Amino acid sequence: FRGGPISVAEYMEEVLTNPKAGFYINRDVFGAEGDFITSPEVSQMFGEMVGVWAMCLWEQMGQPNRVNLVELGPGRGTLMADLLRGASKFKNFTESLHIHLVECSPTLQKLQHHNLKCMDENNANDNVEERTISSLAGTPVSWHAALEQVPSGFPTIIVAHEFYDALPVHQFQKTTRGWCEKLVDIAEDSSLHQQLSFCCSAASGLQIKNWRSLSTLRFVQKRWS
After folding, report:
1. Kind of pairing, strands 178-186 and 192-196?
2. φ and ψ at 47, to 5 degrees?
3. Are 98 and 54 in contact (CB under 8 A)?
4. Where are the domains of the chain?
5. What is the mean pLDDT of residues 175-180?
6. Strands 178-186 and 172-175
7. What is the pLDDT of residue 154?
8. What are the CA-CA distances from residue 101 to residues 69, 153, 157, 180, 215 (Å)?
9. How many helices (H) and strands (E) are present in the chain, helices listed first?
10. Does the domain at residues 39-166 carry the CATH identifier 1.10.340.30?
11. What is the spatial distance between Cα 65 and Cα 97, in angstroms, rounded to a whole number?
């Protein structure tokens, strides 16, 4: 629609999170009825062990009274449900938790709300925002479309299981004319195909700068070692 090819990163973002046709947006993609399955769906022990890790980390932090437990791409909420269920007997830990789920899919948000057995508290005071509480451990739960929306200023533990492999990425290829970015374009028959940028794109220029900085750092480290 822009009149030209788009980056692989832009293409991935549209395919995964387009408001109307995004892969994750309007359906449950997990399990036998979906397209794939993840570790938390196979055994509850996975989420329970992540909970043990989170509680050990909380103790190493000095057992703060409030800690943000953030999950990126929580799927059906199975991992977080198993985590909270397993940790529910350790009240000092669970009472410090504020759960923040970073999820852009309305469909998956509803599944997470259900699987975490959430209850929406209605406050009579208009100045107090409504709170959503998971009855699994009595912990408040909030949803966010992006990580930047999670409240800052508190100790934070982040869980991101099988999340980074679905992030939009830029792809590059070294050619005789330098580093070119891989782009996605539409052919005359409406099929999609890849092509290389004709010159150094903004993304490839930034990437080359980062590579040079990294190479310099490695050289300095080697000299010091």
Report:
1. antiparallel
2. -65, -35
3. no
4. 1-12+170-224, 39-166
5. 84
6. antiparallel
7. 95
8. 8, 17, 12, 36, 36
9. 7, 10
10. no
11. 8
Tokens of 121: 């508290």
Contact yes or no for 118/79 (Cβ under 8 A): no
Pairing relationship of beta strands 139-144 and 97-102 according to DSSP bridges: parallel
* Bridge partners, 181 (sequence order): 172
- Both tokens of 49, joined, read 């062990």
- Dist CA 71 CA 68 (whole Å): 10
Phi, psi of 70, rounded to the nearest 5 degrees = -110, 130
What is the average pLDDT value for the chain, to the nearest integer?
Answer: 86
What tens digit of pLDDT does each residue of 132-141 get? 999 999 999 9
Q: How far apart are CA 4 and CA 19, in angstroms?
A: 22
3-class DSSP state for residue 5? coil
pLDDT digits (tens, 9 = 90+) for 13-42: 999 989 888 888 888 888 777 788 888 999
Q: How many CA atoms lie within 13 A of 196 on its CB side?
A: 13
Contact 112, 101 (CB under 8 A): yes
Asked whether the predicted pLDDT for residue 198 surpasses 50, the reply is: yes
At position 208, the amino acid (one-letter code) is: I
For residues 51 and 65, give the distance between their C-alpha atoms in angstroms, rounded to a whole number: 17
Query: Alpha-carbon distance 212 to 210, whole Å?
Result: 5
